[in-house]
Design a protein that fits this description.
The protein is mainly alpha-helical and about 260 residues long. About 75% of the residues lie in helices and about 0% in strands. The protein has helices at about 1-15, 25-35, 35-60, 65-75, 80-95, 100-105, 115-135, 140-160, 170-175, 185-200, 205-230, 235-260. The longest helix is centred in the last third of the chain and has 26 residues, at about 205-230.
Length: about 260
């Protein structure tokens, strides 16, 4: 029951799906919420794959329209919460100030020029990767679409509990204070279970293993940069890490489409 409540907390915080319940926010339930991060990501990925499937199979829409609706779903389903972190972190990073000043910039509700430019680059790149990667969609592509938010939310959870907080306030600190690194024990189980299921469905499951390696690289990179650039994590830094991971995973799918899945 506590795990289900933690899952619903994640849906309230990280998606635009309306959960009109007053859920408990004590440490035990927030710890379960952290443990459920990858499952919420997997749910998002399944929804994305379903959106694309329905557009391609049950509507007269062109491939361009279907790709656009999938791209739009990646924005609307999250309510833009991670995109906000991407813009704030971009404004802070490109200010080229010290860590303290960067944290102040991230708290500023106004969006600067660098935040606007960074979101344009992110979203336009994602649309390109989605559009070209979803031509002649096969079973493998459906699984890859589902895997992307599953892996990005896993990266977010590991960063949350293994990188120090840059400040003792905000959403990141709220979740971080509720759990310890040992709370991440379900993550390897999720990952192995996902790989086993994939191996039963397709023979090219090694390509999914490649996506996992890319996600691991993102985790290594963003953990180092979070400390170097911002002195640790904040909610905005975690949101930027999610968006950055998903962008690199989509880019990997795009490259695989050209050089492997031909």
């Amino acid at each position: 029951m506590k795990f289900l409540i933690g899952f619903l907390i994640d849906i309230q915080f990280f998606t635009a799906i309306p959960i009109r319940l007053e859920l408990p926010m004590d440490k035990e339930h927030l710890k379960k919420a952290v443990q459920a991060f990858p499952l919420v990501g997997l749910m998002q990925g399944i929804i994305y794959a379903a959106v694309l499937y329905m557009c391609l199979e049950f509507t007269p829409f062109s491939h361009l329209a279907a790709a656009f609706l999938l791209w739009l779903a990646t924005i609307l389903l999250t309510g833009g919460i991670h995109l906000d972190g991407w813009m704030d972190a971009s404004d802070a990073y490109f200010s080229y100030q010290d860590q303290g000043k960067r944290l102040e910039i991230m708290k500023d509700p106004r969006t600067g020029a660098f935040g606007v430019l960074s979101i344009l680059v992110l979203l336009s790149s994602r649309f390109l990767f989605i559009f070209e990667s979803t031509t002649n969609v096969e079973n493998l592509q459906w699984i890859m679409i589902a895997a992307i938010p599953f892996l990005s939310k896993s990266v977010m959870g590991v960063m949350l509990l293994t990188v120090k907080a840059a400040k003792n306030e905000g959403l990141g600190s709220l979740f971080q204070n509720a759990a310890k690194p040992q709370s991440l024990w379900p993550y390897p189980i999720y990952l192995v279970s996902f790989l086993v299921i994939v191996s039963l469905l397709i023979k090219e499951f090694f390509i999914i293993a490649l996506l996992i390696l890319v996600a691991a690289f993102c985790l290594f990179l963003f953990r180092r940069k979070a400390v170097k650039w911002f002195g640790g994590i904040t909610g905005d830094v975690l949101g930027a890490a999610v968006e950055g991971t998903e962008l690199l995973l989509w880019m990997t799918v795009w490259l695989l489409h050209y050089f492997v899945m031909v």
